[in-house]
Design brief:
five-stranded antiparallel β-sheet; 14 strands; alpha+beta; five-stranded mixed β-sheet; single chain
Length: 737
């Protein structure tokens, strides 16, 4: 008798245990249990009352000392009945979010399952909700991305679909959704984006608003990046194509439609004066840290700013005294084009202690403190010098570049060593002959800095500028013209760059938010001080050079009872005028910008003063007025500079009383020197041989200012614009303490 086959017996035992009948039975039991569980959940989960988000909280913005600056959060919402919304606009929302809305029972099982799985597996936010589900989320639940919330959303959506008709659900969805620009609901959105009531919306406009719901901040046309604009336009087309597919829009009407570009944003009520600018800048900073605009607008935040109330008031008063009091905005169209912006930073912490965005956020919404569409002009020149010192650069004939290095300062002198022809004109086409780098900085001589950037290398200069805090962009090209500040920059950008120089080359990033707290989260503020980005010697040498600008150069109107360094700037066609400067304790960038009523850039010439509006005039006067007040009348603090003293620099023997030359960068520069200019030697940057020591022999004198352009003494000496010419030499030296 053979032995029994144990393996066969084992297999028969497994088949008996896992037979198809048992497996099928188990499956049905599991399904019944699941259905039973869902039914129990259905019975146990009621339709709740409106959630806290439906009655939004306010946000509180505080000064650095804790005093309340502003409260926001009064919901910009007006409920409108569906009968007031054009039928085509209603269909646009359905086409954008849920084409099966009129047929489904309130949930999309497949889409919701996908969203739940994405949440459970940590893949993040995932779409798939119906309009009913989104309405339930907005009105009854929270925005949390959890499986529990998603399950409740499904159950409540089914019940809501049973209890409410589709029209009421659609109306609730359109009235509770967030559209960006602080607009909750279709009525507020219609006014915010198109300046009309919801009843007046066109189909194209409705399709845009429906498209916004996917990403309100990213898809706002006026502030969107090129990628954001492309995406929202694609989604707009998607919505209209769906409407045609569903028979809700005629193909011919669809073909004739053009993308409806929305109007520029307008501030919410209560954001008058500088408050709106500051609050918006703080919100933007929080968004850069990862807080969504929707989360901020939902309310419940206590945001403490770095803004110093006294310094903020000092800055506003300085602009009012030195600019606004001299303009007739209502009676003179030219005066109305002048816009001022400023940012003031503590160089030791990066804290933005004061900001001036314009005449008022409700009158001029674009902040002149943070806009980057104007050129910083000659305020960029110190960055060329910083790159030269940092890299140990030499001239074309091998001389190391420092404050005592001699350059040819003749007007229209063509740069040597560049493949790009460039021969910039100096102010009034004046040739200065051989000058030191210090004198060229004092007088902002274009021809010297155009040659210097070639000597340093445009790429190396840009690298240093970005490290210091400039922002890259399509207008930041590498060419000799870059030396004249042809890229775009904001006053906040330039304040950060100069603060880094003031901080001996250690990176300073202007930060507005000191702390941000919510009931269930705390945001770590942005870091104001970073790593060493250029060497201390390079940074301190630039500071030393710019001290000369204030003491005896184009920025002498900024002088006061304090040590100061700074630089003037006046851009092409006089569209912007700047003074950016600092003391050991405070860095401030002030800019004037020419802008007409339609937002186009225009010249500042013959506005605040007759002739060019120079950076060394009104911007320097605003800077000096503010700095004097902010420092309590003055300061004994001194710059602690570590520079290469091997090449002593003599003071400019003839301090300039004019400001820097205009940077006419878009016009083709001439390469023919004036008849009175000595021809350059064959060596690249060696100027014509001087007859005496170039550091002590006065160079070619600058023009004496006319009576109408005669400078006023700095604020700390006597009141500005006291009338008449300056006393001999008064503005050329720093006043005693």
């Amino acid at each position: 008798m053979g032995r029994p086959d144990k393996s066969k017996a084992k297999k028969r035992g497994l088949r008996r245990l896992f037979s198809w009948k048992k497996l099928l039975g188990t499956f049905f039991v599991v399904c019944l249990l699941a259905m039973g569980a869902l039914y129990v959940v259905y019975l146990m989960v009621p339709v709740p009352t409106a959630n806290a988000e439906a009655t939004m909280q306010s946000n509180i913005y505080k000064y650095a000392d804790g005093k309340v600056l502003a409260r926001t959060g009064k919901i910009n919402r007006e409920i409108v009945g569906l009968e007031k919304i054009p039928a085509e606009v209603q269909k646009a929302f359905v086409a954008a979010e849920n084409k099966s809305f009129y047929k489904d029972n309130g949930v999309d099982i497949k889409g919701t399952t996908r969203a739940v799985w994405s949440t459970l597996t940590g893949k993040g936010k995932q779409g798939g909700s119906t309009i009913t589900q989104q309405y339930v989320k907005n009105f009854y639940l929270s925005q949390d991305q959890t499986a529990t919330r998603k399950l409740k959303e499904m159950v409540i959506a089914i019940k809501v679909d049973e209890q409410m008709n589709k029209s009421d659900i659609l109306a609730g969805y359109m009235n509770t959704s967030y559209y960006g620009r602080s607009a909750y609901g279709i009525q507020a959105a219609a006014r915010a984006y198109y300046g009309v009531d919801a009843t007046k919306l066109t189909t194209a406009q409705g399709a845009y608003l429906a498209s916004l719901l996917q990403a309100p901040n990213q898809y706002d046309w006026t502030s969107a990046s090129p990628t954001g604009r492309k995406l929202v336009e694609e989604r707009w087309n998607y919505v209209l194509d769906n409407m045609v597919e569903e028979g809700w829009l005629a193909a011919a009407d669809r073909t004739a439609m053009k993308f409806p570009v929305p109007q520029k944003p307008k501030p919410a009520p209560g954001m008058e004066g500088q408050t709106g600018y500051i609050v918006e800048a703080a919100n933007q900073e929080l968004m850069r840290q990862g807080i969504s605009e929707e989360d901020i607008k939902a309310g419940g935040w206590t945001i403490t700013l770095n803004i110093d109330e006294k310094k903020q008031k000092d800055l506003v008063k300085a602009v009012d005294r030195q600019l606004e009091a001299k303009l007739d905005r209502k009676g003179d169209k030219k005066d109305a084009t002048v816009q001022a912006g400023a940012t003031s930073v503590d160089p030791k912490t990066g804290a933005v202690v004061a900001m001036y965005g314009g005449i008022g956020a409700t009158e001029h919404w674009t902040s002149n403190a943070t806009r980057r569409d104007y050129q910083p002009a000659s305020t960029f020149k110190p960055l060329v010098l910083a790159a030269a010192i940092e890299n140990g650069s030499v001239t074309q004939d091998g001389r190391k570049i420092g404050l005592g290095t001699i350059y040819d300062g003749d007007s229209r002198r063509e740069v040597v060593g560049s493949d790009i022809p460039f021969a910039p004109e100096n102010e009034d086409d004046r040739s200065h002959g051989p000058v030191t780098v210090q004198t060229a900085t004092n007088r902002s001589i274009n021809s010297v800095y155009a040659q210097m950037i070639v000597d340093v290398g445009e790429a190396e200069t840009k690298k240093a500028a970005l490290a210091l805090g400039m922002k890259d962009g399509p207008d930041f090209g590498e060419s000799p013209a870059m030396s004249l500040g042809t890229m775009g920059a904001s006053t906040m950008d330039m304040a950060g760059v100069y603060a880094t120089l003031d901080n001996h080359g250690k990176k300073v990033t202007p930060t507005l938010v000191k702390a941000a707290e919510h009931r269930d989260r705390v945001v770590t503020p942005a870091k104001g001080i970073g790593e060493q980005v250029i060497g201390r010697e390079a940074a301190d040498t630039v500071t030393k050079a710019m001290q000369g600008v204030v003491q005896s150069g184009s920025g002498f109107r900024a002088a006061g009872d304090y040590e100061a360094a700074g630089k003037t700037g006046t851009s092409e066609n006089n569209r912007s005028a700047w003074f950016v400067g600092y003391t050991p304790e405070l860095v401030t960038a002030v800019g004037l910008f020419g802008e007409d009523a339609t937002g186009n850039q225009v010249t500042l010439t013959n506005t605040i003063n007759e002739g060019r509006a120079n950076g060394g005039r009104t911007p320097a006067q605003i800077w000096g007025d503010y700095t004097t007040s902010a420092l309590g009348g003055g300061s004994d603090a001194s710059f602690d500079l570590e520079t290469d003293s091997s090449t002593p620099v003599e003071p400019d023997p003839e301090p300039t009383r004019t400001t820097e030359a205009p940077e006419e960068t878009t016009q083709a520069p001439t390469t023919t020197a004036p008849a009175t200019t000595p021809p350059p030697t064959t060596t690249a940057t060696t100027p014509p041989e001087p007859t005496a020591d170039p550091t002590t022999t006065p160079p070619e004198p600058t023009d004496e200012p006319t009576a109408t352009e005669e400078p006023s003494p700095p604020p700390s000496i006597e009141p500005p614009d006291a009338g008449g010419p300056d006393p001999e030499g008064e503005a050329s030296t720093r006043p005693s303490r």
